[in-house]
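ARCHIVE CARD
Drawer: 12
Card no.: 0347
Subject: one protein chain, sequence and derived structure
Cross-reference: see card 0346
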Amino acid sequence: MSDWTALPDLASRRLGGGVPWANDEAFAERENLIRPTDPVFSPATFGHKGQVYDGWETRRRREPGSDQAVVRLGLPGVVRGVVVDTAFFTGNYPPFCSVDGCAVEGYPSPAELADADWRPLVAHSPLAGDTRNVFDVTDPHRFTHVRLTIHPDGGVARLRVHGEPVADPRLLEPGWLDLAALDNGAAITGCSNMFYSSPANLISPGFASVMGEGWETARRRDEGNDWVSVRLAGAGVPRVAELDTSHFKGNAPGWASLTAGGEVLLDRVRLQPDTRHRFPLTTAVEATDVRLDVYPDGGMARLRLWGALSDTGRAAFTLRWFNLLPATQATAVLAAAGLSERDIRATVEARPVDALPALGI
C-alpha cells in the first residue's frame, strides 16, 4: 500500500460528501459512513433498534443477496485507495465487500444512479472485524460517486475514499478563484511539522469551526520556523492572500510570509490571534507552487490565495479534467457541447488529448 491515506477523504461529510441511498439501514443509519470523526462505541447503550453503533448496519439477511450504499463524493476526483473500517463490529461485520465508482453529469437521483456506468474499484474482497481494511485502487479516472457493497449483510463504521480532487472547469471562473483551494485541485506537497493536525486542513473548504480543523505544529525549541508548501490548482498569478488564525488564540504564529519559486509574494508580516487577515500581493508572479512560512511556530485555520489562472494554467487545468473522465461522462460532455457523434467518438478514443474542441469553457 502506498501512502495514499495522507490524501484527502473525498467522501467526507466535512468536504460535502453525502449518502443518497442504501437498500437497508435497519440498525444504524447510512450517513454515519462518511462522518469525519473516528468511530466511537459505548457498550450496553441500547436504543429502540438495539445496541447503538456509530456506523451503517443492515438487518440479518434471510434470503440471497447483498446490501449496498451509494456515496456522493464531496470532491470528485481520482481515487487512490479505500478504507472500509469495521471498528467495533465484531460479531456483526460483513465477511466480504466490493466497491465500484461512477462519473455522472449533474445531480442524479438514486434511481438514475442505479443505471449509471459503474466501474469496479475494489474487487470482491475479504473483511476483518473491528479493523481498518485498506484497499489500493488503480483505476485512473475521475469519479463522482462510489458504491459500497457488503456481502451479504452487517455493519461498517466508516468508508474512507482517499484521492486527488479534480475540479470541473465549467464551474469555475478562471479569472478569479482560490488557487490554493483543495476543492479546486490544490494539494499540500510538504511541511515542517504536523504534530497536532494535518496541513491539508489549511486548504479545505469552508471555515474551521474549531482549532482542530486547522494546521498546528509543536512548540519549537530552536531558532528555526515552521512552513508548508502548496501545489496550486494550476499555474496562475496570486493577487490576494488570506491568512486565517481563527480559534488560535494563545498559539497563533507571530508572523508569516509567502514565497513562490524564490520570489517574495508577501514579506514577513505580523499576525494577530483568532483573526482573518487579508493582504494584497503586489508582486505579479506566475506560480505553480507557494510556500507559507510561519514564525516561529503555531497554528493556522486556513490559507487562501485568490488570483487568476494563466493561459497555460487554464489549458492544463481543463485538459487534465477532460482526460480523466470515464468514457461515458466524456461522451456526455462533448454531446452537450454540440459535437457530432463522429467527432465525439474520435475525441474520446484519442485521449489523452493535448487540445480540445470548443467546449465553451
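Annotation on reverse: The first strand starts at residue 18 and ends at 22. Helices lie at 110-114, 311-324, 327-336, 341-350.
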